Amino acid sequence: MSALPKFMTLERFINEQEMMHPGATGEFSGLLHDLSLAAKLVWREVSKAGLVNILGTTDRMNVSGDVVKKLDEFADETIYKAMDHGGHVCVMASEENEDILQIPDQYTAGKYVLLYDPLDGSSNIDANITIGSIFSVFKRATTTGKGTLQDCLQPGYKQVAAGYIIYGSSTIFVYSTGHGVHGFTLDPSVGEFLLSHEDIRIPVKGKIYSLNEGNFCNWESGMQRYIQYLKEQDKATDRPYSLRYIGTMVGDSHRTLLYGGIFAYPGDKKNPQGKLRLMYECNPMAFIIEQAGGRSSDGTKSVLQVQPASLHQHTPVFLGSTEDVKMCEEFLQGKR
Ligand code: AHG
Ligand code: MN
Ligand code: MN
Questions:
Q1: Which ligand 1 atom is the nearest neighbour of the CA of 95?
Q2: Under a CB-based contact definition with an 8 Å cutoff, are residues 280 and 76 in contact?
């Protein structure tokens, strides 16, 4: 017998993790299973993005007679539809919808709350650049019946799971339930996510910074001084840093997770709260980065400590290697 590596599917991994929790009802695992199906359905469509015009579409109708939808609209509906009838969630909310998304009356409301960014980096789709989907899971705050806005507006430290799917040169499902961060690469030929990145740990310090430096003129001086510092030459502190920026938070955070360094979307004079959304982007990514041993910040405290007041609120965000994020905070707080 040749020494084949151990194949661990996402499904089996989730089940084995569940068995480590004797009181588990399976509801949580069921939710993760449904999410992995949603990920495959979105991936299938994303991977055909450039083919829409070739595969016989006329007047925005595809070959099966469905109206062709924008990909982020498609992803939004697909994730909702994959999750609405499993009996695991009591309410959802997505970046694409102003209000909370109720579970249809005919289905059972479960114990969990799902918030998601169906397609992140959507402006990159037409250029065939990495995009992703992001999810955040809470236990419901209310006890019975349909979920409410109150169930959705919980601070990030209460997340029971979070993760993302990156549709890049390969498709990877990365998630954490508070016991480390694990990544599963999709093998399209068998339609399974296979464990490829077990217990990811972010380096303590990196040498890459990732942010939209085009906003430099609008930043506060602490932010400007920090980036200037990273660009200076100094062998002892391994500077200058390299700049890498895709403009897809999933891609930029994934690289930061694996290589270290810092990803940031600071507030600025035009948008004091920055651009990225707390509930759909910053909370789940902060959870992943912190679970991998890194640090998140809104400039003064962990992103996970931000108390949400509304579904679509923004927050400045700094994520990455502990040493890099700490240093950034020192500049922002005028200590350097
Ligand atoms: P979305 O596609 O979900 O609206 O998110 C876009 C976000 C995020 O992915 C990325 O980090 C950021 O926008 C990029 O913004 P800039 O173009 O301002 O750099
Ligand atoms: Mn996004
Ligand atoms: Mn989006």
A1: 3
A2: no
